[in-house]
């Protein structure tokens, strides 16, 4: 229950809430409106019951995207009760539930259209139809307000859902971004979908007008903040096609482990992309490390690094070549890694896979500043694991890690780097020749590099014994496959025998 408790409580409340609404409509059309049931049968019951679920879920799905509001709640007492860092996961749960309920709703109405087209004059009057001009299945489905808007809404859903699939969203984020904004059409049409209200007055607007206003205020705040001047203080090209941006903005506030949204109007005026913050709040700039993986990041690399070189590629830029702002940023927004400092943990495990190491760059820097200022930190022991296929990737934060090794008070930090790719013959020879050297030949750190993948079973087992009776914070950012593995071991070694608990946190944005 350490890892699943809050999530299960939220899901149970969500299911019970919509279950009650669906059950009430089911009972009403099956046992109260017997006149309608006699004509349409369970097609009417299913259509109205699924509509009740759609209304509730459409209201909730907007709140999952109110990032400022969720960040505020995360910092309140509710942060320990509800899994606010799972807002994207919950967003997907709601979205697929809406899809299922929409399929039931639409399928039921197709049967309703058929039954209405076959009804007699008395039955047509009961259903609010004109017996003198009996409707056909075609006219009901495509020429009425409910039928026509329903088909357009379904088309919007197909476009939004298909473009949100990972294999489309990741390499072609622009398509995902633009099609997802069809939610404006989706909500607008659904507000009028129930007219003329034959069986019951239209009520969708009553469910969503509050959340829509809330979301509008949220977006307005983000637009206002995003339009403030931002200076690109430094752009550094790292190995493995990673570019570091150091940005300056007078009013930008954030905490270690948070993320921001960044916009480059020169590339795409309306697109905002989320990236984990890699600088510490104690620094006078905010930085992100961006790996080139898609269209937008590829254009960014070309814009800032046309000569394709490594090192510093840009300094002190305010405007792009067309005179537009070089960047706009908005944030910081709450994320799971915030709890490294706020979760009350004495022991933490920080695990990064590839570019997923970025939130821990911010956290480790912040720890370093705290140690320099006061000589102490709330964390007694931190285990840092960095797994990468590219040995050059270890250069990204080597200066921070090296400094922490030198200032490792009470040996509070243990650094573990893992290289999962094979080395060339020359690289193996260099490693062997430097075996007795003080610095590791791969990372330049005092801590040796491990070759291959970590044995997580042994690692979690050892920590559960070493830190008996403690709640250990496990923080991960990286591939989903590795996340599932870590989550499995966090649950496995949360033991009543050792009284050790592993509380698992994964980045979601």
Tell me the number of helical segments per DSSP (H or I, 4 or more residues long).
19
Which regions are unreliable across 5 or more consecutive residues at pLDDT < 50? none
β-strand amount:
15-25%
Which strand order do you get reading across the main beta sheet?
Answer: 11-10-9-8-12-13
Q: What is the total tally of β strands?
A: 13
Query: What class do helices, strands and sheet pairing give?
Result: alpha/beta
What's the main sheet like? 6 strands, parallel
Spatial shape = elongated
Summed over residues and divided by their number, the pLDDT gives a mean of 85
Helix content: 40-55%
Rg calculated over all Cα atoms: 28 Å
> What is the CA–CA distance across the termini?
24 Å
Provide a descriptive summary of the structure in words.
The protein is an alpha/beta fold and 509 residues long. The chain contains 19 helices and 13 strands. The chain has helices at 5-32, 34-40, 42-63, 67-74, 87-117, 121-126, 137-142, 145-163, 166-169, 173-180, 183-193, 204-226, 295-304, 339-342, 358-374, 398-406, 425-433, 456-466, 480-492, and strands at 231-238, 242-248, 259-263, 273-276, 286-291, 311-317, 328-333, 347-353, 381-388, 413-419, 449-451, 471-477, 501-506. Helix 8 packs antiparallel against helix 10 (173-180). The protein is elongated, with a radius of gyration of 28 Å. The protein starts with a helix and ends with a strand.
């Amino acid at each position: 229950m350490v890892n699943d408790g809050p999530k299960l409580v939220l899901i149970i409340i969500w299911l019970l809430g919509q279950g009650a609404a669906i059950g009430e409509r089911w009972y009403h059309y099956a046992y109260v409106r017997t006149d309608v049931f006699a004509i349409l049968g369970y097609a009417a019951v299913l259509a109205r019951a699924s509509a009740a679920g759609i209304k509730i879920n459409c209201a909730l799905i907007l709140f999952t995207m109110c990032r400022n509001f969720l960040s505020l709640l995360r910092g309140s007492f509710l942060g320990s009760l509800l899994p606010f860092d799972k807002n994207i996961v919950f967003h997907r749960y709601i979205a697929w539930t809406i899809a299922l309920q929409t399929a039931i709703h639409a399928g039921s109405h197709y049967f309703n259209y058929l039954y209405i087209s076959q009804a007699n004059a008395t039955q047509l009057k009961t259903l609010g139809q004109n017996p003198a001009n009996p409707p056909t299945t075609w006219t009901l489905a495509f020429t009425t307000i409910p039928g026509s808007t329903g088909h357009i809404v379904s088309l919007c859903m197909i476009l939004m859902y298909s473009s949100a699939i990972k294999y489309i969203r990741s390499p072609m984020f622009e398509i995902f971004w633009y099609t997802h904004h069809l939610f404006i059409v989706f909500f607008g049409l659904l507000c009028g979908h129930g007219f003329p209200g034959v069986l019951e007055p239209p009520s969708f607007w009553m469910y969503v007008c509050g959340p829509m206003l809330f979301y509008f205020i949220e977006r307005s705040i983000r637009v206002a903040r995003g339009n403030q001047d931002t200076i690109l203080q430094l752009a550094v090209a790292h190995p493995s096609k990673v570019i570091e941006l150091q940005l300056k903005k007078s009013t930008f506030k954030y905490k270690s482990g948070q993320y921001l949204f960044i916009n480059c109007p020169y590339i795409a005026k309306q697109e905002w992309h989320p990236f984990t913050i890699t600088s510490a709040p104690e620094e006078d700039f905010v930085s992100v490390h961006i790996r080139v993986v898609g269209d937008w990041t590829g254009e960014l690399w070309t814009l800032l690094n046309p000569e394709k070189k490594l090192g510093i590629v840009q300094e002190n830029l305010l405007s792009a070549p067309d005179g537009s702002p070089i960047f706009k940023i908005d944030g910081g927004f709450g994320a799971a890694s915030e709890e490294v400092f706020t979760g009350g943990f004495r022991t933490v495990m920080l695990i990064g896979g590839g570019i997923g190491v970025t939130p821990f760059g911010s956290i480790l820097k912040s720890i370093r500043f705290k140690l320099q200022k006061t000589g102490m930190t709330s964390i007694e022991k931190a285990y840092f694991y960095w797994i990468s296929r590219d040995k050059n990737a270890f250069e990204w934060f080597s200066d921070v890690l090296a400094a922490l090794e030198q200032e490792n008070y009470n040996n509070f930090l243990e650094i573990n780097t893992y290289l999962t790719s094979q080395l060339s013959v020359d690289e193996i020879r260099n490693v062997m020749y430097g075996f007795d050297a003080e610095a590791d030949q791969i990372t330049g750190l005092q801590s040796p590099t491990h070759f291959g993948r970590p044995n997580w079973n042994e690692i979690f087992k050892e920590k559960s014994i070493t830190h008996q009776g403690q709640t250990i914070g496990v923080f991960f950012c990286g591939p989903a496959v590795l996340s599932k593995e870590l989550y499995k071991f966090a649950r496995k070694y949360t033991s009543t025998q050792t009284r050790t608990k592993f509380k698992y946190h994964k980045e979601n944005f």
